[in-house]
Structure formats: structure tokens, C-alpha cells
Fold this protein.
Amino acid sequence: MKIDAHQHFWCFNPQRDAWITDDMRVLQRDFLPEDLQPLLQQHQFDGCVAVQADTSEKETEFLLNLAEKHPFIKGVVGWLDLCSDAIDERLAHFSTYKNLKGLRHIVQAEPDGYMLRKDFQRGISKLEKYNLTYDILIFPHQLEEAIALVNTFPNQKFILDHCAKPYIKDGKIKTWKRHIETLSGFENVACKVSGLTTEADWKHWDNTTMEPYLDVVFNAFGTKRTLFGSDWPVSVLAGTYAETVGLIEQYIAQFTETEQQQIMGLNAKTWYHLKD
């Protein structure tokens, strides 16, 4: 089973999607299943995991509805207000959707201390009951907080998105590396090798640029806790879908065929409880 474990869909709305600035004009349009499916087929993917890009329940419903209509969308990582007093009720409601596999909040946009808040952690504490993962979306300076979070909930499955967005363009690696190694010590955490090309110089990266960062992640998390994700369509800012896939496939050619299959899909199947 070959799975793209991280991609997005949206109907572009300039007000809602203000994060898509003018230097990202290529993203200022709709990206829907019919745009992705040919790319998945071209690269022999069996399906994908659709991840929230907007912080609203409407977004979660939008993705779940797409998954109902398009069986190649094997799972959804949605958004619910984890800090809400009504989180129990909302989880009970959304747990009736078989394709909801996890939740995510855009913590990279939040002030320091967000993941340590009691209301946020109360929300996290509810996810295990529903067999939902939590995707951690942060910048490197928030890694220490993420370490504290995963340490507090040893039975909760966490997946680190985009390797915590290392500062590839600036060539910084040392502090990020140390924290990634610490975070990987928790067996309840996996890491997506996704979104790396857009952390580099969009026009001037190559596989050699990425190698030191991939070395850190694979040395830390191994081949059983790493998941490939394209981060399409955001990834088109820095290259084609083929280049995004090729970067990881070329790097993991050093591993056994079984290990390559784990990285390119079987780990996603396990961590997100995806069905064939």
C-alpha cells in the first residue's frame, strides 16, 4: 500500500486563505481531488491522507465529504477546537465519520506556551478514546514544547509534520537536530518527511541540500516511524510532484525494499489506521 500521507484540498478564498500571499500566486486557485488523482496514479500511489488547511469545523466537514466521494482519500486529519469546553461533544459527533483519522491545529501560528495550556492539553487527552492521532505542526523553536507535550501523553499517537520545518534555507541544523533526536526518543511519535523543499530556497535546492536534514530524521526516527507526505499543493512552490516524490525515493533507495514500503505507505496505514 503506497500512501501520500500529507496533502491538502481547498476551494480558494482570498479572505480565508490570506496565508497564500502574492509570492505564492500559483496556489491562488482551487485544488481538488480531480487535480491530485492523476498525480497519485502516475506515481503508483494507492491513496492519500487529506490534512486540514483551515481552522474550522467546516473545513473538517469539507474534507470528510470529499473522502466519502473519492475512495482514494483514505483518511482525513481535520480540525476541532481542542480548547473548547464542548470538545467531548464535538469528538463524539465527528467520530461517526469513519474517515476521520486525526486532528491538527496550526500551532506554528500560536504564541509560545500554547501546547502547555491546560485547555489544549485537556483536548489532547480526549483523542486516545477515539483512536485519533494528533499531527504536530510547529517551527523548530517550538520543539521543546512538543517534547513536553508528548511526554505528558505517552499513550497518545503523535505525528510531527514537515520534520518541524527546519531552517534549510539558512543552513541551520544543530539545535533542530538535538531536539529532533530528543523527540524521537518517545515511541508514541512518528515524523512525516514532508514539506522540506518549501523550507529551502524554492528555486535553488537539490537533493544534496536536503541530505543532511533527511539524515537527521532517519537516524532519529528510523524507517518504522517515518511517513512520506508530498505536502501538495504547497510543494509546487518549490517543484513538481515528481520532484517531491523523487527526492525521498532517491534518498531511501539505500534502505531495504521492505523499509522503503514502510516509509512510502505502510507506516501511514499503521499510524492512521487506514483501511485497504
User: Anything to note?
Assistant: The domain at 3-271 is CATH 3.20.20.140 (TIM Barrel). The chain has nine helices and eight strands. The mean pLDDT is 97. The beta strands are 3-7, 47-51, 73-78, 100-105, 133-136, 158-160, 189-193, 226-228.
